[in-house]
Predict the structure.
Amino acid sequence: MTNAFFPTEKLLLGPGPSNVSPRVLAALGMPPLGHLDPDFIELMEEVKVLLRQVFGTQNEVTFPVSGTGSAGMEFTLVNWIEPGDRVLVAINGVFGTRLANLADRLGAQTTRLEFPWGDVIDKNQLAQKAEDIKPKIICVVNGETSTGVYQPMDGLAEIAHDNGALLLADCVTSLGGMPVNLDAWGVDLAYSGTQKCLSCPPGLAPVSVSPRAVEVFHQRKTPVPSFYLDLGEILKYVGTGQKRAYHHTAPVNMIFGLHAALCEVMEEGIPARIERHRQAAARLITKVLPLGFEPVVKAENRLYPLTTLRLPEGADEAALRVRLLHEHRVEVGGGLGPFAGTVWRCGLMGVNATIRNADTLASCIADVL
């Protein structure tokens, strides 16, 4: 007979998932409902309204995809790319690369416009490339989880729309912790994840689709090469109206948890939440500078929820991370790509974005050093 699993609670200060509040945990543990139960459908409608508020949009097509943030990424490409379509991807980290690789798999003519890791993209270069190739979609990462860069979005929609393209934004690490204003930015396709600044466990991918993108979707000449992520099929289930058609069994308890998490976001207020993330990140940097750590990203380009720190010269980053986890039950993330072995990714996200947690992490780092 196998014993039940009860994990030791840890302070999750890496790139995600983050810890969740007691209110969210309680919601996850509520008795399940059927995925077509009228009470559940009503709750789903509330979740859609709350997601619009957090995304800063009036887009009717805004809902949680049943899957992690990567499912959100795939949803925003598989529904709009047809073989031979031109796609322009601005890459300054791992997750821009993933977008480009997925576009390749879907048969797109993918153009990669690469920039140094830790920097924002150059809008002039993006505009020139868009004018040259006239893509169907321009993809940018608003919050690059591999580098800790927050990409300014002003002017990007003009570049896309002036060249007949849709603008797609990865908001996985920005939603709920940084300014996200899809309508003001002119973003057509956006996706995120629940496990970072929303402080809900991984398992759902909030997405939002502009009316312009919906129109482009309806002009497809070929079937969507996915049943599970086909927008047309999903809308029969999560769309508006009284009659709902079965598409898949939604993860009902995850929707319960997301509803509780979004209620917490709105009760705190988005500006206050963003400021809390800013203060926590600033405190962490102040505390670790005397220990020999240096922030990788310029102050004006930093993601508040995720801080990339270059370790002191000669430090064994992997060994130190193991000690943090085993001796203090504190998790941080290692660097990826060119940052591997020299950089930590420290997440102060959602309920974890506090001065207390910043001080705790700095104290634990000092101990293992």
Q: What stands out?
A: Residues 22-265 form a domain with the Aspartate Aminotransferase; domain 2 fold (CATH 3.40.640.10).
